[in-house]
């Protein structure tokens, strides 16, 4: 799976939660600043599991706090399995 | 058949002596006196130390007696039944210690264990003026300094901030505003240089008037590096995990105070005569007492299964603890307020315990994560709960042990705590199968429960997750989820422990709304037990007890 595919999916997902268009989600801006608070950001871990079939910690978005950081991390995880 | 943790409750109760005997250190009248003077129950807490209660705040692996959380629950319940100011003041040491038990190194845990076993007081300093429940906004900072850190800033509205020997402090280790910007520190006040901190005066409160609810202000307080619990930036995560345990145990506070209220009002209704007969025999009073008794047993069913789940369904505790912390104090508040009406104006008399426990109980819904915080925690997990229900995913081993009171729970493994429950909630997800299997016993109630759960999850599935400004409808769904959980707890408690079907019908009717006339049949059981100081428990409905 290419990083672009993962990035696009993440932007859509984040956009859905904060009720904006995916194009408005700057992949280098921290999710907290985009409006996804840290407790809510844990929901992403469930979505990631459903979408990519990989196990990630609920705190994944805390440790990789932007769309690009998450993309890099997920790309490594998805490639490894 | 007895439930083993009740043997502990009885031992404590016996050691404390008759609460009505003014000669006892820990008597109800003495607690009322102290409350009237807003005075801390110093000698009572010292007495509890002498009795060895701090042993129950320390896990067995660190030299204490905390093996199953059921025992700690009964300690909290037994103390709360007598006086909540005392319970809150004393049990707070567990809240202050839990982060170290969950995430500390073996060395940190052993060091703290020695202190707690000596009777030292440990406090948890989380909240700050102006931020309240929003702990992430906290400004107290820990800055690297020499070989350790220096702490600056003020924690306020902290239980035992002044009395505490040690304070577990959530402090900012990064100036940014994100989940990894806080860390936890176990600060030993005895090792701080003078001038490194001062206390803020005790605040005057509506309930628990004698409690040491105060604050602490740090000014360049130097602490060693090994005061940090867990990794830098892990503060929030550790804290949320620890709260999953303590929020569940808060159920014991409501159970204790609710029982005190029910006993007091039922006792009054036995003695007080109206229209030529005891008040307790008037239908309306009888109904309030019986329904309150049923409510307490629902709360108990839920609290017992959830406390056992700390050991057996550990990974689901993010849902379970939030549901218990919302639902149990809420229904017990309601019961206490209805019981107040039986007393009429007497509920307000300051020489009686009722006005105090009514004030005190209101606080349970506020501290340690208020009602909205807990409902929000459920809202955030809706999608996982829907998925789990649709798939009827149940951790059968974990759920069977949680529900079967005679089964021994395995040792608690803190590493299994998770901020999000991947598998949803086994107890609720077991409902389709369990209501089906038990249907013949109470077809009307169980059919209704099944439709309730199906309908609720259909609505949950239609919810669009939102990151902010959670709409009121979603809080309402979380409330209904909690009621569904309560009903499921009653069902499994009944099925796994041989309880009377009358009990199940009455409890389900209380939870789901509507009325089962059978509730009136609870009253004789309650009246029989008023002179007995053993816990008023659902175990009275065990056919083989």
From TrEMBL, chain A:
<dbReference type="InterPro" id="IPR009081">
    <property type="entry name" value="PP-bd_ACP"/>
</dbReference>
<dbReference type="InterPro" id="IPR036736">
    <property type="entry name" value="ACP-like_sf"/>
</dbReference>
<keyword id="KW-0596">Phosphopantetheine</keyword>
<protein>
    <submittedName>
        <fullName>Acyl carrier protein</fullName>
    </submittedName>
</protein>
<dbReference type="InterPro" id="IPR020806">
    <property type="entry name" value="PKS_PP-bd"/>
</dbReference>
<dbReference type="Pfam" id="PF00550">
    <property type="entry name" value="PP-binding"/>
</dbReference>
<feature type="domain" description="Carrier">
    <location>
        <begin position="4"/>
        <end position="78"/>
    </location>
</feature>
<keyword id="KW-0597">Phosphoprotein</keyword>
């Amino acid at each position: 799976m290419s990083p672009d595919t993962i990035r696009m999916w993440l932007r859509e997902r984040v956009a859905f939660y904060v009720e904006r268009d995916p194009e408005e989600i700057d992949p280098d801006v921290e999710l907290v600043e985009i409006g996804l608070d840290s407790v809510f950001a844990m929901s992403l871990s469930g979505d990631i599991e459903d979408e990519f079939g990989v196990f990630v910690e609920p705190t994944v978005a805390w440790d990789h706090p932007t769309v690009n950081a998450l993309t890099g991390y997920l790309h490594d995880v998805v490639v490894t399995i | 058949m007895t439930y083993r943790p009740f043997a502990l409750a009885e031992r404590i109760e016996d050691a404390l002596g008759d609460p009505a005997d003014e000669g006892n250190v820990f008597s109800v009248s003495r607690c009322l006196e102290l409350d009237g003077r807003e005075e801390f129950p110093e000698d009572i807490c010292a007495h509890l130390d002498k009795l060895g209660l701090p042993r129950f705040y320390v896990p067995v692996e660190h030299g204490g007696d905390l093996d199953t959380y059921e025992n700690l629950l009964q300690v909290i319940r037994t103390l709360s039944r007598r006086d909540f100011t005392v319970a809150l003041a004393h049990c707070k040491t567990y809240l202050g210690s839990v982060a170290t038990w969950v995430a500390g190194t073996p060395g940190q845990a052993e060091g703290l264990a020695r202190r707690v076993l000596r009777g030292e007081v440990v406090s948890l300093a989380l909240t700050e003026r102006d931020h309240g429940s929003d702990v992430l906004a906290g400004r107290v900072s820990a800055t690297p300094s020499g070989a350790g850190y220096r702490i600056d800033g003020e924690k306020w509205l902290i239980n035992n901030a002044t009395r505490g020997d040690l304070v577990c402090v959530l402090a900012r280790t990064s100036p940014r505003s994100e989940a990894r910007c806080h860390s936890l520190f176990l600060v030993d006040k005895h090792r701080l240089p003078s001038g490194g901190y001062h206390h803020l005066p005790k605040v005057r409160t509506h309930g628990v008037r004698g409690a040491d609810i105060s604050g602490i202000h740090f000014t360049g307080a130097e602490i060693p590096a090994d005061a940090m619990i867990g990794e830098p930036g892990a503060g929030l995560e550790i804290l949320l995990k620890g709260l999953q345990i303590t929020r569940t145990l808060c159920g014991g506070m409501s159970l204790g105070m609710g029982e005190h209220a029910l006993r007091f009002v039922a006792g009054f209704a036995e003695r007080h005569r109206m229209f030529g007969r005891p008040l307790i025999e008037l239908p309306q009073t009888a109904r309030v007492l019986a329904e309150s008794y049923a409510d307490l047993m629902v709360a108990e069913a839920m609290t017992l299964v959830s406390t056992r789940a700390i050991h057996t369904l550990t990974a689901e505790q993010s849902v379970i603890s939030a549901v218990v912390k919302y639902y149990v104090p809420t229904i017990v508040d309601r019961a206490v307020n209805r019981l107040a009406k039986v007393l009429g104006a007497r509920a307000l008399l300051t020489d009686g315990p009722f006005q105090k426990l009514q004030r005190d109980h209101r606080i349970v819904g506020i501290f340690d994560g208020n009602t909205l915080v807990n409902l929000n925690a459920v809202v955030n997990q809706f999608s996982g709960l829907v998925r789990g229900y649709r798939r009827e995913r149940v951790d059968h081993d974990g759920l069977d042990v949680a529900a079967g009171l005679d089964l021994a729970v395995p040792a608690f493994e803190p590493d299994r705590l998770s901020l999000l429950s991947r598998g949803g909630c086994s107890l609720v997800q077991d409902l389709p199968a369990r209501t089906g299997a038990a249907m013949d016993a109470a077809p009307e109630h169980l059919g209704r429960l099944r439709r309730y759960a199906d309908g609720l999850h259909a609505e949950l599935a239609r919810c669009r997750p939102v990151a902010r400004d959670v709409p009121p409808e979603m809080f309402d769904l979380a409330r209904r989820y909690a009621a569904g959980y309560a009903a499921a707890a009653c069902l499994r408690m009944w099925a796994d422990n041989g309880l009377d079907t009358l009990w199940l019908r009455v409890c389900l009717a209380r939870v789901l709304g509507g009325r089962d006339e059978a509730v009136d049949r609870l009253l004789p059981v309650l009246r029989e037990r008023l002179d007995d100081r053993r816990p008023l428990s659902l175990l009275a409905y065990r056919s083989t007890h």
